Every structure is written in C-alpha cells, then in structure tokens.
Amino acid sequence: MYETMEEVKNAIKDCNKCKLCAKRKNIVFGVGNENADIMFIGEGPGADEDAQGIPFVGKAGQLMNKAFDVVGIEREEVYIANIVKCRPPNNRDPEQDEILGCINYLRNQVMIVKPKIIVLLGRISLQNILGKEYKITASRGKWFEKKGIFYMPTWHPAALLRDETKKIDFIKDLEEVIKKSSEF
Ligand code: URA
User: Does the beta carbon of 48 sit less than 6 angstroms from any atom of ligand 1?
Assistant: First the structure.
C-alpha cells in the first residue's frame, strides 16, 4: 500500500492487470478532496468518463451533481472513485477478475482519504465492498458500520435515469449522509 495518492496514481498509470486496459482511453482514477469525510464509490467508467478520465461526468454524473446541489454537497469537498478504473465495454458489469485486479487501488485510496462515511452507489459497489450477500433493494437507505466507517448504500445514479421515482430515495439517502456527517 502507498502512503500518498500521487504514489497510487503512479502505480496505476500503466496498469495491465486485466483485459480492460486494451481499449481504455483514460484511467479514471478518482477526484476530489483527499481528506474528505465523505467518499462516493461507483461501479466503473462509462464512455464520457473514459474520454475525460474523470468519474461521473456523463448523464448519470450530471444527475448526481444535481442531487448534490439539492442537498448541499460540494463535489470538491467529497472524494469520488469507482470499483474499476477502466471502462467495461458497452457498459457491461465489471467481471470478477477485473474487480479483483483493481480493488486494491480503491482500498489504497480509502486508506489515504480515511473517510468517515462511504456512499455505495449501486449493487456492484455494495456487493464488492460489503459482501455478495447484500442486496441493493434491501440495503439502500440503511447504515452499516464496519471498522469505524459508516456505509450508506444507495441507488446508482444511472438507475435514476431509468426510474424517476428512485430520485426521491436518492435525495433522502444523501440527506441522511449529510445529517450523519454533521455529527462528527
Ligand atoms: N457510472 C459509474 O459507476 N461510475 C462513473 O464514473 C460513471 C458512471
């Protein structure tokens, strides 16, 4: 494990641990405050993120930004990263070997940021951080604590694009996050 984000970035820059490296335009490392209290973990880059090298800049990300505005989260104040750093083709789910090759980078990012709260965006994030037995429908909106970190699973922002009604849950979950963060 590396001590600084620069070192992790350096370690990942020519990564070829899995097949996703073949078609990537950019590694989508992560952005934000490296000392954030709140960290968001998504699934993996889409086409826009791959093109720009920044997480959550496409349609789902723009919707997430709007939700941030509603509840008063500044994107620059939090840290945002993904389970896999390179784009899975056609936005398919990342495969287990890809996740296994990549997850230590994320673990290292968490170790450096030391967030008090981690928001798990969607099933892939939830199941690869808390465990395969967790279901997103049953877990979203609930707090889970592990080793001093509070986890809030919620819908992936792309799910809100498909189902408007999920926006209400998403905002509610973010409000919970704000409330908890004010207690620290
Ligand atoms: N979806 C994700 O899970 N992550 C991104 O960075 C963009 C879309």
Answer: no
Any ligand 1 atom below 6 A from CB of 125: no
E strand segments, 58-184: 79-82, 117-121, 144-146, 149-154
pLDDT for residue 100? 98
If one residue of 26, 40, 43, 154 were mutated to test the ligand 1 pocket, choosing by the most ligand atoms within 8 A of its CB, it would be 43
Return the C-alpha torsion angle 136, 17, 21, 112, nearest 10. 60
CB of 30 closer than 6 angstroms to any ligand 1 atom: no
Among 26, 23, 30, CA closest to 5: 30
pLDDT in tens, 8-18: 999 999 999 99
Q: What is the pLDDT of residue 83?
A: 98
What are φ and ψ of residue 114, in 5° steps?
50, 55
